[in-house]
Design goal:
33% helix; membrane; alpha+beta; 4 helices; cell membrane; Beta-Lactamase
């Protein structure tokens, strides 16, 4: 009887507890997966359709909490950006973070590495918190493009 009562109380506690909240920040694994999904979409649907998908904030495949996709060409021109469409079409090769680190040059260097991909660390405004935070982006080269998604630390 005591075991049945304990099990019932445990079940009631479980059923009446609030659901666990989603993690507030994306994880490195989620950033890698988002980057891979973006590359697959570019390959299957072409640049224009894929870039439109990346720009759509309602598309959960490419917008999840603080995770979003960005795409640059090998010269440093933004060709798609998940949260800041004003960047698209601009050469941002010389853009620096608040510590003076060249961000896009880092992406280009990672894309030109023998692996064609790497993690690049820098500081960037978090769209969820509206503050500049340390960030690490998984970037990967596909053709003449650099595709990435990053996590805030």
């Amino acid at each position: 009887m005591k075991t049945a009562l304990a099990a019932l109380l445990l079940l009631l506690n479980f059923l009446t507890s609030p659901p666990a909240a989603a993690a507030p920040k994306g994880t490195p694994g989620e950033a890698v997966a988002m980057t891979k999904r973006a590359i697959a979409l570019i390959a299957s649907q072409g640049h224009a359709k894929a870039f439109a998908e990346f720009a759509d904030p309602a598309n959960a495949a490419f917008h999840d909490r603080d995770l979003y996709v960005f795409v640059y060409d090998m010269d440093g021109v933004a060709v798609a950006h998940g949260v800041n469409p004003k960047m698209v079409g601009k050469n941002l090769r010389d853009m620096r973070d608040i510590d003076g680190k060249y961000i896009i040059r880092g992406f280009i260097g990672a894309a030109q590495s023998p692996a064609g991909s790497a993690w690049v660390e820098y500081k960037w405004p978090n769209p969820a918190t509206k503050t500049v935070e340390p960030k690490a982006a998984c970037v990967e080269r596909t053709g003449d493009l650099i595709v990435g998604a990053g996590v805030y630390k």
